[in-house]
Amino acid sequence: TSKACISGQSFHSQPRSRTENGNAGRCPAALIMDPLMMDRLPENHPPLVEVKNVSKRFNETEALRNISFYTERGSIFGLVGSDGAGKSTLLRLIATMIEPTSGSIYINGLDVVTQKRKIKNIIGYMPQRFGLYQDLTVEENMDFFMDIFGISRQERKNRKEKYLGFSHLLPFTDRPAGQLSGGMKQKLGLACVLVHEPQLLILDEPTNGVDPVSRYEFWDILGNMKREGMTILVSTAYLDEGEKCDKLALMHNSLLLDTAAPADLRGNSDTLEEAIIARIKEVDKELFHDSFKL
């Protein structure tokens, strides 16, 4: 299993923005995923997340272009790819933090634009910079998030024991969050996101900068959540974590290149790292040649 982090030179060779070099809107069609070729939706088990032809622009910058995929219930769906590919933007869209420029996103059949209030209680979103209160203790942070979600007094003790237990934080309930290690802060953030027991957990590179032991423990928690039936949508820069996902979406330069199980994405390559680097280099090479045809 590759333990590479997608941060090497091969993954930073793309232009800073698609508008700077005249490549906006130009990409070799044979090398990207055609939305019409997306896996057929299962008829008997509708997906929890369905993304249909979604694009997002910030002024002149194209952050996402024509993205389509779905996430099966009770699975771990991973987003991998180069820096600036659009992974965080896509997760923010699904978490109802921003709205798409075009296209549609549905969570459990609910539209993320017109039905945000109904979606709030069925998702848990943990961005890269999660808002823990540094001066509050571990327990006080948990209480704060349970207040937000209206968790009853009868349920509070059980949920604290469950999620702080999963996170190995029960011995540290009186410690201020600001005095926790990086890995412990991330696990506390996850526990806070889980207190209302969402159907969908959305995580944006939750283990970046975390030590290997804490990364292992964090993914052990995700495995437990999956076994309980939770659906998890996670972006990661670590390809050993990508191997633990049921399905991966490979993104680059605002595009979705492929969705497949890790083994299928690896193909005949020795490692997932080699397969992804080769695919991205192939796309970048075609974009480079295409720029000289203008």
- Radius of gyration over all CA atoms, rounded: 20 Å
Question: How is the largest sheet built, in terms of strand order?
Answer: 6-7-8-3-9-10
Q: Which structural class best describes the helix and strand composition?
A: alpha/beta
Element pattern in H and E: EEEHEEHEHHHEHEHEEHH
Strand content: 15-25%
Question: N-to-C terminal Cα separation, in Å?
Answer: 42 Å
Mind sketching the topology for me?
Elements: E1 49-58, E2 61-71, E3 76-81, H1 87-94, E4 102-107, E5 110-111, H2 116-120, E6 123-126, H3 138-148, H4 153-166, H5 182-194, E7 200-204, H6 212-227, E8 231-235, H7 239-242, E9 247-252, E10 255-260, H8 262-266, H9 272-291
Parallel strand pairs: 3-8, 3-9, 6-7, 7-8
Antiparallel strand pairs: 1-2, 1-4, 4-5, 9-10
Helix pairs in contact: 3-5, 4-5
Would you give an account of this structure?
The chain is α/β, with parallel strands linked by helices and 294 residues long. 33% of the residues lie in helices and 21% in strands. It is built from 9 helices and 10 strands. α6 links the parallel β7 (200-204) and β8. α4 (153-166) runs antiparallel to α5 (182-194). The longest helix has 20 residues, at 272-291. The termini are far apart.
Characteristic key phrases:
about 290 residues; alpha/beta; 9 helices; 10 strands; globular; disordered N terminus; disordered C terminus
Quick recap of the structure?
With 294 residues, this protein is an alpha/beta fold. The chain is built from nine helices and ten strands.
